[in-house]
Structure formats: structure tokens, C-alpha cells
Amino acid sequence: MSDAVDLLFTNVNLATMVPTAVDGYGEMPDAALAVKDGRIAWLGARRDAPPATAEHDCGGAWMTPGLADCHTHVVHAGNRSNEWEARLNGASYEDIARQGGGIMSTVRATREADVAALLGQSLPRVARLLCEGVTTLEIKSGYGLALDAEARMLRAARAVAERLPVRVVTTFLGAHALPPEFAGRPDDYVTEVCERMLPQLAQEGLVDAVDAFCERIGFTHAQTERIFLAARALKLPVKLHAEQLSDQQGAELVARHGGLSADHLEYLSQAGIDAMARAGTVAVLLPGAYYFLRETRQPPIAALREAKVAMAVATDCNPGTSPMTSLLLAMNMACTLWRLTPQEALLGATIHAARALGLHEDIGSLEVGKRADLALWDIARPADLAYAMGSNPCRSVVNGGVLRAAHISM
Q1: Which conformational region is residue 78 in: left (phi greater than 0), alpha (psi within -120 to 50 degrees), or beta?
Q2: For 111, what's the count of Cα atoms within 13 Å in the CB-facing half-sphere?
Q3: What is the C-alpha to C-alpha distance for residues 318 and 81, in angstroms, rounded to an integer?
Q4: How far apart are the C-alpha atoms of 203 and 272, rounded to whole Å?
Q5: β 282-285/5-15 pair status
């Protein structure tokens, strides 16, 4: 049995999500998939399956790559349901931010929390995501806005991966908002981010990528570019909150710096689309924030599709504008609100989400050599994952070749 694989999944229908597949899902009915040393060793027709040390009969279930939520703010403290209520009573997002609410409300709560408290509040949110087949999760900082507080957030994000079966990618979002101690001095705060915060956090191994909020209530084009230059000097990839509330040419900026992704994009221009297409920058679509803020300006989906820009879908889990812990619901919203196809939505939560994290060579599709991060679903066809609102058909999940139940006990 020396040539036997470690684990063989049989009696399974595969949705490989290989982007070049003609049908979009890369369907392989009545198939099998073999795992060895935590990676996909073989996949194909069940009758051709190799010998295995252990075998798992999937009972005709569907298997996809494990889902990746490539844009979250899931580590934070506090609650902002009061602001949601205020918006329903007529206040705008910008009104709330200028009155000390918005991001700064969460900053105050997060600054008061130690790593243990942040972890304790965040783990239940992460567990809900994992129950729906998520195996990779991006977690941003950005609610500390000071070196020590940002470090606590990033340490809590790293600790999530130690406590739960999930791969965590950390993103430093020090340029999320202007902290009160730098009121009226945004350029000085950008200097603090570039010359003190980012280098020290990177040296501690807490940063996998760098993000910024380029917006009228955030940071200017020029300030954002300073942050990108500092990140690239440290050999860290960049991404950007871009064109959510207005067109600040952020997508063009992040594409010019070879960015992994531009996220939100409701006000994305054709020039931004063209720049992203040339650079291979992924468009990360965040329908939860669009829905929760009751926005009416939609991202230019048809133009992105025409330009062949890869489109990812994520929850944007955060306390102020998208308190959502369901990637399946985000997929449904992307389809119903913005007319993505179910194939595009599932590609957006697998291979394109992996590309937005710079991990597409390792995860995101069912291909030999890739990490065996998998999800098993009790569904009739792959489109069901984006179809049934409020449904969670995830039966079980595989993390690095280790099979576990979908439910996470806290």
C-alpha cells in the first residue's frame, strides 16, 4: 500500500471551478478525488480511482473547493446597531462619520479591548462563516489606528487560525480613517502609517498585505500612493477600498501598483476597468454593504465582464456597513441585486477570491497539486449554493486533507 493515497473521496460530483472550464463549474459527475500529504493527488472518474489507505463515500454529494472570503473586518469590538437605526431614520453614512460615529465608533471600542477580548468577540463570527464551507479568510485591521491597537487586532487575527480550522490572511488597514489625535493632520498620520506602524508590524510578521480607504471621507489619491510605495518597499502586496462612494481613481492607482484587488467599485469608471484588466487586478464585489446602506449605484458588472476582469465576491463582514457572516448570502445578493450568474458567483467565492488574496496557485479550484481545502454540499446542482436564501447545505469540510463536520462547536 506504499503507493496508496491517504484519503479517497468517492461517489461524489465535482465542481472543479477551473476558470477555463467550458461550463463555468468544471463539472465532473460520478467522480472521485484523492488526497495525499494534504494536497489533491488525483481526480477523475470513480471507476479509475487509485488505491487508498482510507475511503469516504460522499453519497452523491457535490464537492467544491473550500470557499474563500477575501474581504472581511471580522476582528473588531463593539456594536453599531444604533447607527443602522439612525440611517433608517434619515442620516447618511457620511453624516454619521462626521459626527464621530462610523469607523471611529468601532475604533473606540477596539482600542479598549485586549487580544483575548478581541478574539472572544470575533470567534463566533468566524465560526458562522466556516459552517458554510469557508476554508480561507482575509482579516483586516483598521479599527485600532495606532500602533499598539493595530498590532492587537493583527495578533487576534493570527490567533483565529490557531483556534479554528481556517487559513487566515492578514491585511494591514491602518489608513482606514483619521484618528482623533491626528485631527486636521492627515499627512502626518500617513507618515506615521508609512514610517512607523507598517514597518514594525511587518517586521513582527503580522502583515500579509496592505489596504487603504481612498475616499472623500478617507484618504486622498496622493496619500494612498504614499502608503502603497511604503508597502511595496517592504515587498508587501497592496489592495484598495476603491470607488465605493465616489470616483477617486483608486482602481487606476491600485492597478498601477500591481494590486491584488480593488474592492467595492460602485463608482468605477471605464478607465479604472481598463487599468484593472491590464494589471490583472481582481474586482472584489461586496453586495452586503450595498444592501445594508441601501445604495442605488451598482458596480459596472457588464463592463467588468466585457473587459474580462476577474470578479470575486466577499461578505465585507464589519459592524457598520455589512454585519454579515454568510458568504452564501453574499453570493445570492450578487446574483439578485447585480445579475451575476450563479457560475460567476461561485467562481467569485473560490478561484477569483483566491486570486484576490494572491493564493490562486495554491487554493480555489480542484486541481492536482493544490491544497486539499474542500467543501461537501447536499445540493442537486452547483447553482443551488447561490439560489437558496438562508439555506446552508454544507455537509462537511476538508482543511488540508483533514475531514471535519461543517458545524463548529465553540
Answers
A1: left
A2: 12
A3: 12
A4: 33
A5: unpaired
C-alpha cell belonging to residue 322: 455589512
341-356 core/surface letters (b: 16 or more CB in 10 A; e: else): ebbbbbbbbbbbbbbb
pLDDT, tens digit, 9 for 90 and up, residues 294-304: 899 999 999 99
167-168-169-174 Cα dihedral, nearest 10 degrees: 180
Q: In 3D, which of 369, 391, 282 has the Cα closest to residue 40? A: 369
The residues with which 67 forms a beta bridge, in sequence order, are 134
Give yes or no for a contact between 168 and 137, defined as CB atoms under 8 angstroms apart. Answer: yes
Residue 188: CB atoms within 10 A of its CB come to 12
Report the SS3 class of residue 82.
Answer: helix
**Residue 40: partners with Cβ closer than 8 Å, 6 or more residues away:** 33, 34, 366, 367, 368, 369, 370, 371, 372
Q: What is the pLDDT of residues 105-136, one digit of tens each?
A: 899 999 999 999 999 999 999 999 999 999 99
Q: Is the pTM of this model over 0.85?
A: yes
